[in-house]
Amino acid sequence: MPIRILPDEVASQIAAGEVVERPASVVKELIENGLDAGAGRITVRIADAGRRLIEVADDGRGIPAGELELAVARHATSKLQSAEDLFHITTLGFRGEALASIASVSRFTLTSRAEGSPVGESLRVEAGKVGYTQQAGGPVGTLVRVEDLFFNVPARLKFLKRDITERQQIDGLVTRYALAYPHVRFHLFHDDRPALQTSGKGDRREVLASLYGVDVARQMLEVAFTDGPTQVSGFISPVALTRSNRRDITFFVNGRWVQDASLTAALLQAYHTLLMVGRYPLATLFISIAPEEVDVNVHPAKAEVRFRSPDAVFSAVSRAARRALLAYSPVPSVAPATAWQRSFEGAGARGIDPAWEMAQGTPLPVPALPPEPEADIPAPLQAPQAPQPGQAGLPGGMMPLLRLVGQVGAAYLVAEGPDGLYLIDQHAAHERVLFERFMRQRSEGIASQALLEPALVVLPPAQAMLLHNQMDVLERLGFQVEGFGPNTFRVRGIPALFAGADPAAAVRAVVEDFEEDETPLQAEVEARLIARVCKRSAVKAGHVLSAEEQRVLLRDLEQCVSPRTCPHGRPTMIHLSVDLLERQFGRRGAR
User: Domain of 188?
Assistant: First the structure.
C-alpha cells in the first residue's frame, strides 16, 4: 500500500485513544485545566457513568474571546513556549492534546468567559468538526460539556466497563484531587445525586474526614519530612488501620497524581515487619521536588513520571513514612514476666468482645445442610455439606474431640487429640463458627436486632456507591441501613447474631475490600458479605480468653461442618502428630 498522510479526523481519534481511555480520563483532563487556570471551585456533573454526560465547571481565569477555536486545536497550549520549557514544567497540562482529543470522540461544548470580558463565548464541536462561536452569558470561568462519549467510535464504547466501575474510577479521581488541593471546593454529582462536597478551607484532615469519616481521619498520621531538595508531606495510616489492597495509596508529585510502583514499594518498606501479609496502609503523600529533577513527559496521560535520582526519592519516601510511624506509634517495651502473668490471671474478670456472647451456651449440633445450588461460590465460602452416615474416618475435614490444654500468646488455643497436638487460631476459629451459624440462619430467615442508638457510617464516594447498590442484599442479611446524606448512612439494626458488635465496623466490612470489577452472583454476594462481617466480628488475636470461653470455642468448632478453615480459606488449626513429636525429640528415627 502507498504511504499517505492520515486524515485529520483519523489522526485525532488515534491521539484520543492515548489520552481518553474512559470517562475518568475526561474528568482528569478537565479538572487539571481548571486547576491550572487558578480555579477556587470545581463542579463535576456525571450522567450514566459519563457515557451520556460529563460536565466540568470552574471559576478560573477563563479563555479570552477569540481563542476558543484555538483551544480545541491539536497541539495548542498556553503553557509552553519552547522545547526548553519541557524540562521546567510547573503546570498539570502542557501537551495541548486534551480538549482536541475529547472533542474528536464526543459532542463537545466549550463555554468560557475570561476575566475582564463583559460576556463569554460558546463553541460546539461534534466528532472533531468545529462549529461557530457565539456569545454566551455566564460567570467568569469555563464550562465544558462532553455528551455521548465515544458515540462515533462504538468499538471503544464496548470496551467500557459496568457503570458502577466507571463511577468508581471517577469518584477515586476527584477524591484524590480534593485531597491534593484542599483550598479548592470540589462538588461531584452522579445523576444529580451529590457524591462529594469539600469546603475548600485548605485543611486536608477535614477533607479526609469527609471521605473516610471522622474516626479514620483522626487516626491518620501526619507526615512532614525534608531531605535536601525533596519534601514529603501528607498522611499515612497507623499499623492498626489497613486495607486488603493498594487502592488507598496515592502519590502526588508537584501537585500531579502519579502511578509509580517504586513509590508504593518505598512506602511499604517503611511498614516492613509492622503489617500482616496481604494488608496495606492508607496513604496520601505529596512529593515536592525541583521541576528539573522529574520528567513528566513520559506518557500522553501524564500519569507516569521519571526521576533523575530515583534512589534519593525512594529513600525520602521510605524514611518519611518510617519516622512518622515511630513518632506516633513507638515500639512498645517488653513487659516483665510478672506483668504478663497478671494479665492472664485477670482474664476471666475482663471477658471478651460482645460478639463472643453469642457463642456461649449449648454447643450447636452438626447442621444437616442441604446441597447448595450455587456452584459458582468459591469453595471456602460455600456452605459445606454434612458428612454422610457410614463414611469412615473423619469425612469432610472434620476434627476429633479435643481436650483443652490452654491458651498461648493470647491468640492460639492448645488442645490434645487422640492423634497428637492441635494449635488453634482463635480468630479464624471464631470466624468459622459465626459463618456457619449465619449461613444456617440465612435459609431460616435472619433475625435483625434494632439498635437503641443508630450508628452513622461515612464512606468514600466509591464505597458509598457500592453500599447503596447492595442495600437489598443487606436487608436480606438482617441489616437495617438507610441513606443519611452524601456518602453517609445510618445503621438502625444489625443481625441478631452480631448483637453487641460494632455496627459501623460491620457495615464498613461489607464494602471496604470489594474489588472494583467484582461481578459475583447474588448468592455469592451474600456469602462474601457474610464472611467479611464474620471476620470483623470474630474475637481478635491478642485477646485473652477465660478457660470457659476457650472450652466453648473449642466445642463449637468441633460441631462445625468445615472446622479446619475459616470462611476465607485460611487454616484454623495446625496438627502436630505424635509421630512428628517423637521424631522432633529424637525418640524415633526417620523411616
Answer: 8-201
